[in-house]
């Protein structure tokens, strides 16, 4: 597996992927991920792929197209590639202690990495602003 820049969020060992082409998984801290999901849902109708919540690790994982890991550079996140293993998404979470926030079949096959990058950046700014008001 390939892993890009990380600030130590946990990534499930069996990264889900759609179809034979496979997908990568962007993992972020749950707070930032949940904010990004809200941003994506109220956005301009951009497609969102499945989202996995790892309750024990406090992370969210966004399914993105295969190859995303090679160029992923968003601080505070990790993008794990599946190396073309062609894992398939199914309704059962791939890791014990996790669950689908947005399950396969109820979402597009993957989230566009550029759209996710913008949403994660906006989420980080909103969290910083909220924390500075305390």
3D architecture notes:
A hairpin with a 4-residue loop joins strand 2 and strand 3. The protein has two helices and five strands. The protein has helices at residues 30-42, 113-132; strands at residues 23-29, 51-54, 59-65, 78-80, 98-102. It is α+β, with helices and mostly antiparallel strands and 134 residues long. Helices cover 25% and strands 19% of the residues. Helix 1 (30-42) packs across helix 2. It has a five-stranded antiparallel beta sheet with strand order 4-1-3-2-5.
Outline the secondary-structure elements.
Blueprint: E1 23-29, H1 30-42, E2 51-54, E3 59-65, E4 78-80, E5 98-102, H2 113-132
Antiparallel strand pairs: 1-3, 1-4, 2-3, 2-5
Helix pairs in contact: 1-2
Low-confidence spans: 1-20
Strand order of the largest sheet: 4-1-3-2-5
Gyration radius, in Å: 14 Å
Give the number of DSSP strands: 5
Q: What is the share of helical residues?
A: 10-25%
- Termini separation: 40 Å
SSE topology string? EHEEEEH
Largest sheet: 5 strands, antiparallel
Which range does the strand content fall in? 15-25%
Number of helices: 2
- Category from helices, strands and their pairing: alpha+beta
The coarse silhouette is globular
Could you tell me the mean pLDDT?
80
Question: What would the keywords be for this entry?
Answer:
disordered N terminus, 5-stranded antiparallel beta sheet, globular, 134 residues, alpha+beta
Gist of the model:
The protein is α+β, with helices and mostly antiparallel strands. It has helices spanning 30-42, 113-132, and strands at 23-29, 51-54, 59-65, 78-80, 98-102. The relative contact order is 0.28.
């Amino acid at each position: 597996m390939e892993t890009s820049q990380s600030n130590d969020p946990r990534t499930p060992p069996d990264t889900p992927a759609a179809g034979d082409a496979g997908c990568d998984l962007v993992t972020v801290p749950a707070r930032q991920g949940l904010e990004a999901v809200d941003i994506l849902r109220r956005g301009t109708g951009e497609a969102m792929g499945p989202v996995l919540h790892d309750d024990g690790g406090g992370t969210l994982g966004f399914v993105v197209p295969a190859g995303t890991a090679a160029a992923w550079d968003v601080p505070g996140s990790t993008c794990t590639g599946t190396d073309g293993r062609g894992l398939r998404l199914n309704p059962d979470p791939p890791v014990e202690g996790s669950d689908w926030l947005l399950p396969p079949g109820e979402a597009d096959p993957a989230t566009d990495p550029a759209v996710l990058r913008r949403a994660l950046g906006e989420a980080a700014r909103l969290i910083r602003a909220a924390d500075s008001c305390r």
